[in-house]
Amino acid sequence: MEHVAIYPGSFDPVTNGHLDIIERGLAIFDKVIVTILINPNKQALFTLEERLEMLHKSMENFKNVEVDTFSGLLVDYAQQKKAHAILRGLRAVSDFEYEFQMALMNRRLRREIQSVFLMTGLRWIFTSSSIIKEAARFGGDISGMVPDCVKTKLEEKFLCKLG
Ligand code: COA
Questions:
Q1: d(CA 45, CA 24)
Q2: Domains of the chain
Q3: Residue 77 vs residues 25, 39, 102, 142: alpha-carbon distances, Å
Q4: Which residue's CA is the closest to the ligand 1 atom numbered 8?
Q5: Does 161 have pLDDT greater than 70?
Q6: Which residue numbers are catalytic?
Q7: I want to staple 83 with a disulfide (CB 3.0 to 4.6 A). Which of 68, 78, 110, 162 is the partner?
């Protein structure tokens, strides 16, 4: 039986912290499906198409990864994809309460799907897409924090906004 995990998120944009969790997930699961939540209520910097393109490019050297999008309940999507687990990364302690709440709700909705938490690498403990966007917006150097294609996209985006 193939063990499949879903790694969901906004990925606005994908960061090296996300890649770290995906790599760790691939050491445990046969396949990881990285999926972007289509969420009209969350104001994103990048369009869904841009986020998908950046994810695809960042995953070029990864084997056994599928990139996708979803809307609705995560557990329904997981079921539909025949996945047994939802993968989430834990960074600082502050992630715990939110993740715990979400995992318990997901379990209540579908008991057979397990939530698996992987501890992020120390380097990524305080990384988030917002903090990276904030640094990039004001010309901060974000090399090494995001894949190269994301760095280029962020620079283009903020150059456009300033110009
Ligand atoms: N490295 C770096 N940053 C990370 C990270 C990591 N390993 N893991 C998470 N983050 C950051 C993200 O970049 C994001 O940053 P931002 O807020 O600055 O943009 C932040 O942590 C939130 O993470 P994200 O994974 O994008 O979570 P989310 O809260 O936007 O979405 C879903 C979480 C998609 C799993 C959740 O909303 C969901 O399942 N929605 C569907 C409906 C549903 O089924 N809900 C649950 C039951 S009701």
A1: 27
A2: 4-122 (3.40.50.620)
A3: 18, 14, 15, 33
A4: 89
A5: no
A6: 18, 42, 91, 129
A7: 78
Predicted model pTM: 0.94
What confidence score (pLDDT) does residue 37 get?
Answer: 97
Residue nearest to ligand 1 atom 4, measured at CA: 128
The string of pLDDT tens digits covering residues 6-27 is 999 999 999 999 999 999 999 9
Average pLDDT over residues 97-101: 95
Residues with CB under 6 A from ligand 1: 8-10, 12, 15, 17-18, 21, 37, 73-74, 89, 91, 102, 105-106, 120, 124, 127-130
**Long-range pairs for 105-113: beta carbons < 8 A, 24 or more residues apart:** 106/74, 106/75, 109/73, 109/75, 110/75, 110/76, 110/78, 110/79, 112/84, 113/75, 113/78, 113/79, 113/83, 113/84, 113/85, 113/86
Tell how far the Cα of 122 is from the centroid of ligand 1, in angstroms. 19
